[in-house]
Amino acid sequence: MLRLLRQYLAPYKRTLILITALLLVQAFGQLYLPYLNASIINNGVLTGDTTYILKIGGVMLLVTAVFTVASIVAVYFSARTAMRFGRDVRRAQFERVQEFALREVNEFTAPSLITRNTNDVQQVQMVVVMSLTTMISAPIVAIGGVIMAIQEDVQLSLLLIVVIPLMIIVIGAIIVRAVPQFAIMQDRIDRINLVLRENLTGIRVIRAFVKNRFERQRFADANADLTSTALKVNRLFAMMMPSLMFILNIATIGVLWFGGHLVDNGSLEIGNLTAFIAYVTQILTSVMMAVMMSVMIPRASASANRIQEVLDTNPHITEPAHPSSQIPTAGVIELRNVDFS
């Protein structure tokens, strides 16, 4: 998939740099807000300093406005880039298929070529959209959140050493089992398209020989195969989000429990505990966002491989290197005493 992305996202390097810069602004804004909130609690609420609360509150509103605008602009350019990427890939596939001889078309089959230029491109296109919005910002927020959490309190940060690897293990175990099923699912979609196309093309013959019941059963079998594969994949990923939410809630309880003791001992201020909880939530939310991407990546990877197969196929009938505009003649036809009536 990386090869396909590198090739067809290369013309949009400047836009990608702009999107990355905007997402950096968004991430820094998200990470700065809990720090300001902690400052308001420690230096404003606890001391009763209304002027300080209003001052820092105004800064928080300004930061929120800036990273909100940056987020909107980033989403706009991400969507536009992804749509143009899909357009370019579809065009490249169409132009390559136009060069195919009957031999290549039969190797892929027409229904499979249709699926590769529609559904497969859509799967990769969706990953591009999510990558340009989520996969860039999520690691920045996660890494920045870890740094800010350590600055708030080193002892509480030790919880992250347990929580983050546990989440990665859960995600990895599910993805490893799901990846092979996505390639099978795309083949099942090809089969559905094949049955439908043959049914529509030969509708007169089917009715003439009273094969309606046979064709209905044929489609039902193909549909059942696709449904079965999709259910296997969805059952796997249905386990992911509840498991991650359970880990997130356990982590929050742990922070409140140990943080409460630190506040009671006077070694941690309430504002810092609030900021730490916010950073932990941001870290784990970023991991969960990456999980949502991981759900899409295996299927998109299978689709990208199928697209690349079409683009890498060279037709066995090629244009001559030096085409001749004159066709040699082996004989001459002469017509005499011929008229047209």
Please characterize this protein's 3D structure:
It is a multi-pass membrane protein. It is found in: Cell membrane. With 341 residues, the chain is an all-alpha fold. It has a single domain, classed as ABC transporter transmembrane region fold (Up-down Bundle), CATH 1.20.1560.10. Helix 2 runs antiparallel to helix 3, helix 2 packs antiparallel against helix 12 and helix 3 packs antiparallel against helix 6. The longest helix is centred in the N-terminal third of the chain and has 50 residues. The termini are far apart. The model has no long low-confidence stretch (mean pLDDT 84).
- Evaluate the radius of gyration: 30 Å
Q: How much is the average pLDDT?
A: 84
CATH architecture: Up-down Bundle
Strand content: under 5%
pLDDT < 50 runs, ≥5 residues? none
How many structural domains?
1
CATH-defined topology: ABC transporter transmembrane region fold
Instruction: Specify the structural class.
Output: mainly alpha
Number of strands: 0
Q: How would you characterize the largest beta sheet? A: none
CATH superfamily: ABC transporter type 1, transmembrane domain
- What general outline do the C-alpha atoms trace? elongated
Q: How would you spell out the order of helices and strands? A: HHHHHHHHHHHH
How far is the N terminus from the C terminus?
Answer: 66 Å
Q: What is the percent of helical residues? A: over 70%
What is the helix tally?
12
Domain ABC transmembrane type-1: 17-299
Subcellular location: Cell membrane
Keywords: ATP-binding, Cell membrane, Membrane, Nucleotide-binding, Transmembrane, Transmembrane helix, Transport
Membrane topology: Multi-pass membrane protein
